[in-house]
Amino acid sequence: ISYAAESYESSFIENLPILTKSDDHAGVLEWTKPDGNIAAYDKLMVSQPHIILSANNKYKGLQPDQMVLLADRLAASFTNRLGDALEIVDAPSEGTVLMNMAVTELLLKKKRGLLGYTPIGAVAHAATSNSKVADLEGLAQKVQLQGANLEIELVDATTGELLAIRILKFGGGKKMKGSETWDSVRQEIAELVDRFYTNYTAALGAST
Question: Considering the entire predicted model, what is its pTM?
Answer without folding.
Answer: 0.79
